[in-house]
Every structure is written in structure tokens, then in C-alpha cells.
Design a protein that fits this description.
mainly alpha, about 75% helix
């Protein structure tokens, strides 16, 4: 059996796992091991492309129905939350509560595992959603596609080698340290290229927006990298909540860039 024949099933299994982990699309992922997890996290931006395409469709349909840009943007944000079960927003709130507590790593992790949301989490969620809605209302339709892909690319980088898991169990333990750096670089290049093309050819797009699209990818990664370093320093590694928070942070930063006039 050739290398390609051995690799293709692993890639397909990883893609199915990425979609099943990062969206509500009912895809059967099959048995999960570290190899499958590696491909799933490397291909995470593909799941973002799916989420972003649905959100963009919501924007277009809302516009044709005569809804204002603000309402259309709110519906698009709602669609993205629905497609992800709100798990990334929940992770953002949990991480905000854990880091905001100022407690040592063990206690902060315990706070993050609680089902309730504290004041830090509520404030962070409200501000994040408000910024996302306002930015989408100002950005071209393709902006949500660029942002959704960038958010999942943040997960790819957060799971690269040498990034530890904060707990011995859970999603973080499964995916932490699985992605090779060269694969993360390749995923970034492809994501930036797709973002530029989407921004160039999408409704209301142009050359300026294509440049913004590629820039938004880098800005989203910069924001998520800063948060990742802080979270790893405070918690000792990544968890599923940390990954969710990185998604929303990167999405928000990318949207802010796409909203620039």
C-alpha cells in the first residue's frame, strides 16, 4: 500500500472529526486516536468555512427580505452560535471566569468546569457578541467567512506540538500537541488565500477587501496567540474551554479588520 493510500483515509477521518467536533453537522467520525485528532485540528478551518458559508447565506437572505444590516448581522451571529451549539461562546465565558478569578491554576480550572457563568463570563460574552454584530454589519458579506475560518485556524495553532494540555482528560488532552508546525503553516497559507479570494469575489468585495481578508487572518491569529500564551501561563496548558475562547477571540479580531473602511 502506498503512502497516499495510507494517508487519505486518515485525512478523511480527520475531516469528519473536525466537522463533528466544531459544528452540529451529524457526521460519523468513527474511532478517535491522536493521529485522527492531528488531522482534525489541522483541517479545522474547513469546518470554519462551512460555518461561515451558512452565516453569509443568512446575511444575503436577510438583506433580500429587507432586514437592516444590524438585524441581519445579529441573525448571522445567531446562526454561527447555533451551528456550534454555542460551545465556543461557553468556552469563552468559562475561560473569562477562570482567568478573571485570579486563582491558582487548579482552582481556576475548577471554576471553569462549573456549569454556571460568573460576572467575568457574562461581561465578556455581552461585549464579544456586541462587537461581532456591529462588525458584521459594517463588513462585506464575505467577512463572516473569513472570520469563521480564522477562528478555527486559531485551534490549529493552539494544538501544535509543544503545547500542553492543562488536564489529563478531556478534549484538550486528546488534541494538544498533535499538529506539526509545518502543517499549521500550510493551513495558514491556504486559509489566507481562501480568505482573500472570498473577500475579492464575494458580494460587495474588491481588491481592498481581498487585502483585508488576508490581513484579518493574521490579525485573528495574533489575538488568539496572545490569549493562548496567557492561558497556558496561568493554567499550565489548554482545555476545551481554552480552545473555544480562542475561536471567538480570533473571530472577533478578524471581523474588526474586515469592518475597516
Amino acid at each position: 500500500m502506498s503512502t497516499a493510500e495510507r494517508t487519505d483515509p486518515a485525512v478523511r477521518a480527520g475531516l469528519r472529526l473536525a466537522v463533528s467536533l466544531l459544528t452540529i453537522v451529524p457526521v460519523r467520525s468513527g474511532p478517535v486516536d491522536r493521529g485522527t485528532a492531528r488531522w482534525a485540528m489541522t483541517l479545522a478551518p474547513v469546518a470554519g468555512l462551512l460555518v461561515g458559508a451558512v452565516a453569509a447565506a443568512v446575511l444575503v437572505v436577510s438583506g433580500r427580505l429587507g432586514f437592516g444590516s444590524g438585524l441581519a448581522a445579529a441573525l448571522a451571529v445567531g446562526a454561527m452560535a447555533l451551528l456550534t451549539r454555542g460551545l465556543h461562546l461557553d468556552g469563552l465565558a468559562d475561560l473569562a471566569d477562570g482567568l478573571g478569578s485570579g486563582r491558582p491554576a487548579t482552582e481556576a480550572l475548577a471554576i471553569m468546569k462549573k456549569s454556571d457563568i460568573g460576572p467575568f463570563g457574562v461581561i465578556t460574552l455581552v461585549l464579544t457578541l456586541a462587537i461581532q454584530v456591529a462588525a458584521i454589519a459594517e463588513a462585506p458579506v464575505a467577512g463572516v467567512v473569513v472570520a469563521a475560518m480564522t477562528g478555527r485556524l486559531a485551534v490549529t495553532w493552539a494544538c501544535r506540538s509543544r503545547v500542553r494540555a492543562a488536564r489529563p482528560e478531556g478534549l484538550g488532552a486528546l488534541v494538544a500537541g498533535t499538529v506539526r508546525r509545518r502543517d499549521a503553516v500550510a493551513a495558514t497559507a491556504v486559509t489566507a488565500a481562501v480568505a482573500a479570494v472570498a473577500a475579492l469575489t464575494g458580494p460587495g468585495g474588491g481588491v481592498y477587501h481581498a487585502i483585508l481578508g488576508a490581513t484579518a487572518v493574521l490579525a485573528g491569529l495574533a489575538a488568539s496567540t496572545a490569549l493562548l500564551r496567557h492561558a497556558v501561563r496561568r493554567l499550565g496548558g489548554v482545555t476545551g474551554d481554552v480552545l473555544g475562547a480562542l475561536v471567538e477571540t480570533s473571530v472577533t479580531a478578524a471581523l474588526l479588520v474586515m469592518a475597516l473602511r
